[in-house]
Structure formats: structure tokens, C-alpha cells
Write a structure and sequence with these properties.
This protein has about 220 residues and is mainly α. About 70% of the residues lie in helices and about 0% in strands.
């Protein structure tokens, strides 16, 4: 839907039109959840954040000035709530993120980065799962700021200008932060792959039984 439709729905919602508000939330609910899950890596927490976003939007829609687009304002809320959650978890040293890298939205089969495929080959399925876990751990090693720019750029496909408006930073900062985020992600991914190779090499070779010669 074009931005003009957002403006119309926002005007109606600010006048107390609950149908208009529900239309706005229905339009963006998948993206809200996708960003939250991409940030926190926990489906239940992502759902909680999504609900909190709806509450905040409903509460503060009257103060929305319209100087930026509605989706920019909305994305800023979900990113900030996600960052708050990550920082709170780290502060209490109780971080327990899901190792899954696959982004699952309710009743949606699309995935983030790694496609979901029903593999008939068990070995190939295992390799795919192992790669997904490595990518997940590499992503979780990033700071919340680097997670945000990667999610908005690589998952949501936003331009540098849009990301700058959402995060309230300069375009140059977006480009620099994205460069370092990609570099750190690749470094972490390489480390995961190296540790995987070392673990496999450290495993003892399985004993192979030798058939006894006839008459032995």
C-alpha cells in the first residue's frame, strides 16, 4: 500500500477509528515481528515485543507528528524495544537466545538468510542444519546496533536513507556501521566454521571390525 494510505489510516485512527488502527497493525504486523525476532532471536520474546509495539502505537499515535513516515516511526519503536530487551538481558547476565537462525513468522514459511527445504538426503539436511546453527551463533555475537542495521538492510531491504531515519543517525554512520557489522558477522562465521572443523578432527575414528578368516 502506498504511503498516502498510511496517512489516511493514521488520520482516521487518531480520531478514534479502531478499524483504521487495526488496518495499520495488520499491514505491518509481520514486519514488526520479523524485526523483533531478527533482533532477539526468541519467538516468544518477539511476540511480546510485537504486542508492546501495538500498545505503544495505540497510546502515542496522537503525538505522532508526521514529520517522518509512519513506518519509519513504527520501525524505530520496534528496534528500540528490541535493543532495550537485549541490554536488559545482558545486564542481568541471563541471555538465553534461541540458536535458530531461521526467521519464522506466524503461518509463514519464509526464512531469513537460509531457505527452508525439505531434504530427502539426511546428510545434506544435517549440513544445512549445522550451517544454520553457525549463522545463528555468529549473528548473536553482534552488538545490538550491528544487528539493527543488518536486519533493516538485509531482511527489510531498506535504503541507507530509510535506515538513517529509523535509527536517527547519519547516512554515513549507517554505511560505516553496516560495513563493520558485515565484517564482524563474517569473522564470527569463519570462527564457527573453523571450530567445527577442529571439533570434527578431534573426534576419534570409529573402530572398524575385521572379519575373522575362515577356520580361525
Amino acid at each position: 500500500m502506498p504511503a498516502a494510505d498510511d496517512k489516511q489510516l493514521v488520520r482516521r485512527a487518531r480520531r478514534g477509528d479502531e478499524k483504521a488502527f487495526r488496518a495499520l497493525m495488520e499491514k505491518y504486523r509481520r514486519k514488526i515481528y520479523a524485526i523483533a525476532y531478527g533482533m532477539v532471536r526468541d519467538p516468544e520474546v518477539a511476540m511480546d515485543i510485537s504486542q508492546e509495539v501495538f500498545i505503544k502505537v495505540h497510546r502515542y499515535l496522537g503525538s505522532f507528528q508526521g514529520s517522518s513516515s509512519f513506518y519509519t516511526w513504527l520501525y524505530r519503536i520496534v528496534v528500540n524495544l528490541s535493543i532495550d530487551h537485549i541490554r536488559k538481558e545482558r545486564k542481568h547476565e541471563s541471555v538465553d537466545y534461541d540458536d535458530m537462525i531461521l526467521r519464522r513468522e506466524p503461518d509463514d514459511d519464509e526464512s531469513w538468510i537460509v531457505p527452508t527445504v525439505l531434504d530427502s538426503d539426511p546428510h545434506e539436511a544435517y549440513q544445512r542444519k549445522e550451517m544454520a546453527e553457525r549463522i545463528g551463533r555468529a549473528f548473536e555475537s553482534l552488538s545490538e546496533k550491528h544487528r539493527a542495521v543488518l536486519i533493516l538492510r538485509e531482511v527489510e531491504g531498506q535504503s541507507y536513507e530509510e535506515i538513517a531515519r529509523v535509527l536517527r543517525i547519519h547516512k554515513g554512520t549507517v554505511m560505516s556501521r553496516l560495513h563493520h557489522a558485515r565484517k564482524n558477522f563474517q569473522r564470527a562465521l569463519n570462527r564457527q566454521a573453523r571450530e567445527g572443523r577442529e571439533a570434527r578432527q578431534a573426534r576419534p575414528e570409529p573402530a572398524v571390525g575385521r572379519a575373522e578368516a575362515p577356520g580361525a
